[in-house]
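Reply to thread "Modeling small-molecule complexes from scratch"

Following up on the discussion above, here's a worked example others can learn from. I took a protein sequence and the SMILES for (2S)-2-hydroxybutanedioic acid and predicted the complex. Inputs first:
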Amino acid sequence: MKVTVVGAGNVGATCANCIAEKDIVNEVVLLDIKEGVAEGKSLDMWQTAPINLYDTRIKGVTNDYEATNNSEVVVITSGLPRKPGMSRDDLIATNAGIVKSVTENIIKHSPNAKIIIVSNPLDVMCYCAYLTAKIDSSRVFGMAGILDTARYRAFLAEALNVSPKDIQALLLGGHGDTMVPLPRYTTVSGIPVTDLIDHDTLNAIIERTKVGGGELVKLMGTSAWYAPGAAAAQMVEAIVCNHRRIFPVCALLNGEYGMNNIYLGVPVVLGKNGIEKIIEVKLDKDEQELLAQSAKAVRSVMDVLDNMKLF
Ligand SMILES: NC(=O)c1ccc[n+]([C@@H]2O[C@H](COP(=O)([O-])OP(=O)(O)OC[C@H]3O[C@@H](n4cnc5c(N)ncnc54)[C@H](O)[C@@H]3O)[C@@H](O)[C@H]2O)c1
Ligand SMILES: O=C(O)C[C@H](O)C(=O)O
C-alpha cells in the first residue's frame, strides 16, 4: 500500500516520517517542487529505519506524479505557512492555486485516493480541493481538529497534572480563532472536566487553544509542524488500518448541523473509505451560536476563493 505526502517542508516531512515510523504501509512517496529536497529528506528518513526499526520505504521525488500512482491516501501540505502578524486567511491568494494544481495532478494519478488537506486556510482549501477533484466529499477532508484538540488536551494535562492520554475532548468549527472547543464534551478518564477544574482556568485554556497556532508562529517565525505532522499521520493510520476512529475532521456539511455546502470541523468516523459517517452531537444554544459564528468566518474566506475565479 502506498501513501503520498505532497510538500516536503516542515509539516510534510514530519508527517511522512511519522507514517513511516508507524510501519503500516509499504511505501511513502514525498513530493515537492524544490529540486532535491524531497529526495534528500527521504534518504535521511530512510536511514533512521535501522534505528527506529521499520520497513516502510520512503521515496522522495521532485514533481514526479508518476511516482505517486495509485496512492491509497494523499496528504497535501504544499503551500505557504504564515509569518508573525499574518492570519491563516492571508495565505489564500497563493495557496488556493497550489492546492488546485496539486489536486489536479493527484486525482489524475490516484483516482481512488482519499485526500487529506493540511494547507491553510484549511477549511477553504478543503473546499478548493473538493471542487477540483470532483469526487465524493467522503474522500476529501482536512486535518485540523486532531491538532486543535491535541493542544487543548495538552494544556489541560498540564493544568491538571495528569497524563494527556486520559483526556478526551471534542472541538467543532473552522480552523481559525473562531474554533469551538466544547467543555461539555471534555472528559478525563470519563470524569467531566468541569468537575476537576475551575471555570476561569478552563476558560483561559480554551482561549489559549483558539490562538494556539498563532502562539507558535510568534515563537518560531513560521507555523508549527511536529503536532500537525503527527495529527495528519494519525488520520492516515485510521484510514489505511480501517480503524474507524472518531476524530474531529474538516468535512463537507450537507444538512448536518443545519449547514450546507461548507467545510467545517465536526466529529466523524474515519475508516477505509475515508469519512464513513459524520456524527451530529447535540449542541446547546450557546454552542450553536459559536458554531454559526465560526461558519460565518469560513464563509467570508469562501467568498474570497469565489472572487479568485479559479472554478
Ligand atoms: N491544517 C493545519 O492544522 C496546519 C498545521 C500546520 C501547517 N499548516 C499549513 O500547512 C502548509 C505547509 O506548512 P509548512 O510549515 O510545512 O510549510 P513549508 O514552507 O515548510 O513547506 C511547504 C512546502 O510546500 C512546497 N510546495 C509549494 N508549492 C508546491 C507545489 N505546487 N507542489 C509541491 N510542493 C509545493 C514548498 O516547496 C515547501 O517545501 C501551510 O499552508 C501551513 O499554513 C496547516
Ligand atoms: O497556525 C498556523 O498558521 C498553522 C496551523 O494552522 C496551526 O494551527 O498550527
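What I'd highlight from this example: The radius of gyration is 19 Å. The mean pLDDT is 97. Questions welcome below.
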